[in-house]
Amino acid sequence: MNSFRTRLLFWLVTLIATVLIALGLLLGQLLKDFYAETMNKRMEKEAKALAILLENEPLEQIRSDLREMGDELSSRVTVLDKEERMQFDSGRVAAISDEDHERIVRAILRKKQFPRFSVIEKTNDVYYYIAPYGRGERSGYVILSTPTSSLKKVNEQIWGVLTSSLGMALVVIIALGWKIANQYMRPIEEATKVAFELEKGNYAARVPDGEYNEAGMLVRSINRLARHLQEMSRAREIQTDRLHTLIENVGSGLLFIDHRGHVHLINRAFQTQFHIEPSDCLYRPYADVLPHREVVRFIDDIFITETTMRRHMRLTIGIERRHFDVYGAPIIGTNAEWKGIVVVFHDITELKRLEQIRKDFVANVSHELKTPVTSIKGFAETLLDGAMKDDEALEHFLTIILKESERLQTLVEELLDLSKIEQHGFQLQLSDVDAAQVIAEAAAVFRQKASEKQIDLHIASPPGLVIRGDANRLKQILLNLLANAIAYTPERGRVAVEAEETEREVLIHVKDTGIGIEEKEIPRIFERFYRVDKARSRDSGGTGLGLAIVKHLVEAHHGYITVASEVGRGTVFTIHFPKPER
């Protein structure tokens, strides 16, 4: 803007200076012509006066008068007869020789361009005026020559006055122009700077307050515009931040594709669900970056039909198969302008899993309850049909009924216990528990059973090893693990419970030399009613709920359980408890 102000002032000064110079040249030339014309008229009058004097008086009588008149007039008076012979000459008055003076006079007379009077302008810095006089023998020419020094002096004075006056006028005009330019251009410059800042997005820019006179309306308008833009920008930022927070934190995957078919936005949930980095897919065609053909075909259908669609998909992501409820809709702007497509991925894998668990649970519970109930009913009907009269059969059948009823009672109790553990408000009675004591109490329960199968039951725990937990629930965990270990370990096998501590954890290992578990079955052994060897489990009186209870109780203690097993060699269950803070 400074350059604009400078250019404006430059062209303004140039225009004014040009006008003043042209005016000065015109005035100078007019004054010069005026003084030249005045001098010509004066010389004409003087020459006529001399001619009249020569007509009335003889030359010899007025020679002295002519010489005095030449001195008074500061002019050279020359008189020629009709034959153009010099009769009188008052002498030089300028730096010109007599020979040159005579030559110039002869040259002028040869032109004969004057009928009666003639003015011959400047010749060698001298003005010549020739006037004829008399008739007959007393006729001739009187020549008046005056140097131009006086005219030069007058011209110099004229140009001096014009230059000084016009120069002062130029200075005054420049000062006024600078002041006016500052007065009107400064607010415009300030407003322009603020406009540039607003263009860059700096809506906090303002034109400084000041006395701007006529430009004040522009300044106030710019400031009002800046305030409105700042308020709109702040509101837009708040809205954008809210929208961004909503999009990023919504639980469902979100995919936005623009009208060209390029991926324009993906949220955090989508990245997590499909293990996709934004840099790998943003602003690229969706068909090139989306790894699942089902999703691509779904988006193609929306582009073709321009209608809302919903579809259930089962997609393989890594080594997992996940279920999605996919919703897609076209985005149509104002004036039916096509904006793109938004696709929402609702991960319903957990719902499907829970639904399957519910189905399996109902089927397993029905199956587990059906066996003892059928046995009890069958033996009761047999007794009622007459077998009760046989004392030996009666005792055998009642023993079976008792055993089945106990099994049914155990199943119901474990179901109730598992339901209680899984409830949201379930709480442990936490205290510092001696690991060695809990292990010894749990092992004591199975000493007799281990002895019957000739199983070596070994326990080992360093003294002073403390676990922060519920003593009864810890004992329940070990009882369930020991029950499985002894049940699945053949005769003359070995079962060991060992405890140790690391820098951050307390570990309890339950080892056996039993039948082992296949690697593919290990992830499922903590499911309800799942059995590795279903026939032996049922014969041992197991319900299939023990390991599910163990897993929930360990997690309630903020720990976790790991399994290492080899078929035919045995299994090791390791419980990881966090070390209590000191």
Automatic annotation (TrEMBL):
The protein's UniProt keywords, in alphabetical order, are: ATP-binding, Cell membrane, Kinase, Membrane, Nucleotide-binding, Phosphoprotein, Transferase, Transmembrane, Transmembrane helix, Two-component regulatory system
Q: Which enzyme class, named as a word?
A: transferase
Q: Which reaction does it catalyse?
A: ATP + protein L-histidine = ADP + protein N-phospho-L-histidine
**What InterPro entries would the database entry show?**
BphY/WalK/GraS-like, HAMP_dom, HATPase_C_sf, HATPase_dom, His_kinase_dom, HisK_dim/P_dom, HisK_dim/P_sf, PAS
Histidine kinase domain sequence ranges: 364-581
Residue ranges annotated as transmembrane are 158-178
- Boundaries of every HAMP domain copy: 182-234
Per UniProt, subcellular location reads as: Cell membrane
What Enzyme Commission number does this protein have? 2.7.13.3
Q: How does it sit in the membrane?
A: Multi-pass membrane protein
* GO MF: kinase activity
For whether the record's keyword set contains Transcription regulation, the answer is no
Give one Pfam hit by family name. HATPase_c
Q: Which NCBIfam families match?
A: PnpS, sensory_box
Q: What is this protein called?
A: histidine kinase
- What organism is listed for this UniProt entry? Geobacillus jurassicus
